[in-house]
Structure formats: C-alpha cells, structure tokens
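Exam review. A common question shows you a sequence with its structure tokens and asks you to describe the fold in words. Practice with the pair below. Do the first one on your own.
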Amino acid sequence: MTAEEVESLKNQGNDCVRRKNFAEAVIHYTHAIQKDGKNHVLYSNRSLAFLKLQQFYYALEDAKETIKLQPYWAKGYFRKGEVHFAVGNHETALLSYEQAFKIEPSDKDLAEAISKTRKEMTTARKEDARRPWVWGGAGLFLGLLVVVCDQFIPQKPAVQSLILQILLVAVFSGLALLGSYAYKFIHSNDQSALLEPPLDLFGDNTQKESESKSSESTGSQRSDKGHRRGGVGTGRQRFRMGKS
C-alpha cells in the first residue's frame, strides 16, 4: 500500500511539473519522500521543481542526495549540473555534466549540455577579458571630456596645468578600471550567495527556548533536592534537641 501511495504522489508531482505548477509539485514529492526516503527518483524530481522555483540551495541539496542514493545514475549528476549552470558556475556545471556523460555516453541531452556550457564558458572568459578595457576606455573618454569642457566652457579653466589635466584623465580611467574589477567581484559573490542556505529565522530562537526550558527544569530539580535535604537536616536536628 505504501508503494502505491508513493507512486501516486510521484505521478501527481509529475503532473504538476507538466502544468508548470512547481510549488505544488514540491509538496507532492515531499510527501512521497516522507514515505520512501530512499527513492532517488523522488529527490531528482523535487530537485527539478526547486530549480524551476529558483530555490537553488534546495535544488542542489536534492541533487546531492540523488547522487548519494544512486551514484551510478546519470540524472543525479545532470541535476547537479543544471543547478550550477543556472547560477553561473559553469566550470562546476561542466564537471557534473561530464560525470553524467561518462555514465550515459549515448545521451544526446548530456552532449548538448556539455557543448552549451563550454560555449558559455568561452563567452564569459571573453567578457571578463574585455570588460577592463571597455570600462577603462570609458573612464578615459569621460576624463578627456571633463578636461575639454573645463578648457572651453568656463571663462577661466579650473585646471590649467597640463600635468594636472593628465592626472585627472588618469584618475577617471583608473576609477573605471577599479569599477570593472569590483563588478566582477560582486557578481561572483552574488552567484555564490544563490547556493547558500536560507536564513533560519526561528531555529535559533527555538533552540534558545528549549535550552532555557531545560535550564529551568534543571534548576527546579536542584531546588527541590535542596528543599528535601534541608527538610531532612532540620528534622534530624529537631530530633536530637528533643532527645537532649
């Protein structure tokens, strides 16, 4: 009966994916996983649904679980590659695709994914190499424009020295060049942040509350023991006084 329930939930999830109702698909797959936590297909399907919802962390976790449960199944590595490709980690995506292709060398989709990823990597490298020149050139042009305007628009130029004019142009060009490297750094961090686990807004509070309750319980137990000890000691003292 459990196997039939799992299959029914999986089919409902697959139907939701076909209708692009990915949030509901995640619910069905999750219910199925709760009944059969060793089914690698369920994790693979839920990884796809999470990916469509742009929940990249959960999509990657399910892809990893798929590989863990069935390391010789190509689709697990394909799911992992799809997540990394979606966030722009093309090098890591290519490694996953190639691992899947080793298992299924006749799969045309994997071959296309590898080809597409290599093209994206080539484009990204060219863009990274070209960006400093473009940004630096734009800064150089802006600096020259500022100097020229300063020479012809006001009655008395603010910067009259040729050396200062050259330095001003160099400063504009240098700032633009730094901006290109800053853009690359920020863009790389944004890609990494997409795979970070979401903030647990209630986990710390719940843990603190449980620890507080535990400490209160321990304190009350010690207090009860103290009262008991005090009662026994007082009783003995009264008994001795009565005898004397």
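Now try the second one, then compare your answer with the model answer below.
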Amino acid sequence: HVIVFHANSSHEGRLNMVVSCVLTYLGCMDNAREAAERVLQLRNKTWQGLQMMPSHLRYISYFSDMLLHQMMRIPNSKPLRLVRVIMYPFPDCSEEPAVFEIVRDGQVVWQSPELSASGQDFGAFKVVLVNYSLSGDVVFACKTTPAGEPARLLFRYAFHAGFTSPAPIRIAANKLDMPPQGEIEDDFFMDLVFDTPGAADNDVDEDALDGSPLQAFRLIGRRGGHVTMKELEELEHKEAMRALDREKMEKRAESRGLAEEAREKALARLQRKGVSMEAK
C-alpha cells in the first residue's frame, strides 16, 4: 500500500511536519524529530532547504510528547492570560510603524498600538501591555505596516497554549520564524509574562509578602521581569526548604517548651517534698 501526501502550498516544511508525525504514530520511528531528520535524509535536503521553521519543530515536539507519555488530552486545558510582551532589542523598522498581533484561526484577535524603532528608539526595550487570554493554537506576529504598501513580517512565533507553562518565558531569536532576509539581531529576545485569567495586574499586596524568594519572584514576574523554569523550580525548592526549616524550629521550640514545663513540675514536686520533710 502506498500513501501519497500532497500540500496545497509550496511550503514543504509543513508537509514534512505532517509526514514525520504520521511515521511516528505508525511506529516507523521512535519520535517525530528523528522521523523529520530521516525524511530530510531521504529527500537529500537540509532543515533550511526544506523550510522547516522553529514552529514546525515545536509542534513536532508536542506530538512526540503526547505519544511518549500516552496523553489523551492537552496538558493544560485552562487559558493563559498574557499580561505583557517585552522585546529587546526591537528591530530597525526603517522609520516604518510596526504592530504586534495575536492571530487565531487566521484572524487577528488582538493588535498593539503602533511601535517604532527609529532614531533614539532603535534597539530599545519595547513593552507591550496585552491582558488577553490565550487558548488553543496561537500565533504572535510582529510586522511593519507602511502606508499604501503590504505589511512586512519581522518575525512570527506559533505555539499551543495548552503546552505552555504559565511561568514567564524568554524566547530567543533562534526560536522565532523569520523571513530569509530577517532584520532580527542574534541577541534579540521576547519575554512573555502570564497571569491567571481574571486576575488583576496589581492584585498582589506587597505589604502582605513575607519576603520569601518565590513570592518576590512572582511579584517581579507581574511587573514584567524575566524568569526561567529552572529558576522557578530552584526558588520553589528554597521556599519548601525554608518552610521545612520553620517547621523543625517550631517543633524544637515546642519540645524545649515541654521540657522546660516538665522541669518546672519536677522542681515543684521536689520543693514540696523538701517542705514536708522540714515540717516533719
């Protein structure tokens, strides 16, 4: 039996992604990434030659993870509320206005005000306040919008919200889909700062914080700071150890208190015995 795959566009990378996932599902390969490399080898092409973009590899990883862990549903079914996006250094737009868009099902569902990167703004931080809930397949697109001309894509980032951690995420330039003649610097990054849906951006009472690393970490995240999953795990571990130390100290204090109480009772008994002996 022969199965023929055909794409309605000239984008071979998308077709290779589907074929790789099918080969993995049929058990021909251990994972979709190896399947993709095998297809490239058979077709005598490279990742770049087959137009395999970072987003294709990201979805290949999603598929492999679901098969490996025998997932029956998306890991996180709850929406993520994107609070803000931080970009640095913002690319040179040649004095053309740029916008940051959120796209779902081929439709722009959110768009930022105009962004610029000319003169003193070139290379600066760009903080875009979003406050929009994300679910399912999502595409971030940053493009210029010159008057009277077609929009020009600067970069794109496609992902599925169900496979994304709510912790702040830093996306490096090599994880973005970009045109062949891209204008993104190698040290460019984009930070995504999330919050739980429906929570206000300032719903943390700073006076109520107990100074623990994790609470301070989360507060920084709400303000637009950057953290990684490793840092989050380390801070959570430190906070857990601190809580364990506090519990041990409380138990030791309780034990000392009980010991002191027992000592006082013993002294009281001895004193009573001493008084009765003198009376006799």
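Model answer, second protein: The CA atoms of residues 172 and 187 lie 7 Å apart. The helical segments are 12-25, 32-42, 54-68, 213-222, 229-279. Full marks require stating both points clearly.
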